[in-house]
């Protein structure tokens, strides 16, 4: 084994052992390029092939891509690694259900989203919870430069983290797999040398030379600056700044986690979060006193509530921040906060505090087109993901008299109001007598699902759950357990999005 390969194998083995992954099932994302082919070789030598499988996503943009995917499969079999190919389907017309082929400027972005979605499906199919990719130091330098040109802050300039939740996964109700990048400390040249030394064939994607794609243009500039330490495009220089930013990011994350733990409450049955409105000696809540921490806490809250794959736009964050700061500035001068109406941005609605609650964050009232109707009947005991953020399930308890053949459906609130308007209104009045005021605000309830159940003897389905709580049921429906919970769990993490 060549020295470069031996060092790489030792590095990856140590990393996987440190992360507790050396004895876990791993899915390798292998495109057929030198970096991912080297990844497969290195991982198979580092921990063996028994716990590994590989997936190749054929984007279908080039005539030769299917042949290249087949070549990857042959090499995986040589290594003893199980291999699966997923081919993306692209629509050609307005009526096609498949994703439309995007313009060249967005081609890489959309293809990446579709690729990760397919990889997530493979993980779900095979019960794998960790994905390894071949991202290397050169990719990190490109990412830094790409984000620098987009005026990113500390988080963007920190580059790609070693491990993050796999992005763009289609919701299943289970935690997203973890994406790990074990080659981030290795440069592309070393990976090429490993492939050459061990007779590993790879292919070069011709689209990587298309300089109409900005990342390819940056890659070319970084390649031309290799060895020139005076160039602003020198990879080593870019990575030094990136490392510095990673230290800042870690410090911010630790403080965000501390403040979120201290000042936040989540309502998993409503998908709603609350931040304390209690002020400190500076006239602001502790979580809002520092601009950098305030921004990251808002990003974390927004990500938990709306479950989107992208962070909010900076302008949207600034809108929410201005509302918060103006509220306390007015409170300082007049004794009352300036904001009383909710503020909607980034897919969420922020409700100002009152004497009965702090700052509330809930899903922005969705338009009818935003939430697909689940037209099929669900069996008792089944679950589905609703609005990409809430897991809904209905089951019989031993006390329930409903037959196992009964079925259920989930509806947006506006649809439930059309069919069971009087019942929903009566249910709302009952909730106001028993719930905290924060839990029965119209802005909160508007984004909640309703559940109906239909038995063989019913001509029409019956409403059993709405506004985040069971509806008063007929005797025969007692013991029916309807559960709604946020996909994001019970804690607000210091959210990071992968770019």
| E-strand count | 21
Q: Measure the end-to-end span.
A: 35 Å
Question: What would you call the shape?
Answer: globular
Q: Which stretches are low in confidence, meaning pLDDT under 50 for 5 or more residues running? A: none
Q: Which class best fits the helix and strand makeup?
A: alpha+beta
**Spatial sequence of strands, sheet with the most strands:** 3-2-1-6-8-7
In round numbers, the mean pLDDT is: 87
The tally of helices reads 13
| Strand fraction | 15-25%
The radius of gyration computed from the alpha-carbon positions, rounded to a whole number of angstroms, is: 26 Å
Largest sheet: 6 strands, mixed
- Helix coverage percent: 25-40%
Model description:
- The chain is α+β, with helices and mostly antiparallel strands.
- It is built from 13 helices and 21 strands.
- The chain has a 6-stranded mixed sheet with strand order 3-2-1-6-8-7, with helices on both faces. The protein has a 5-stranded antiparallel sheet with strand order 9-10-13-12-11. Strands 14-17-18-19-20 form a 5-stranded antiparallel sheet, with helices on one face.
- A hairpin with a 4-residue loop joins strand 9 and strand 10.
- It starts with a helix and ends in a 13-residue tail after the last strand.
- About 35% of the residues are buried.
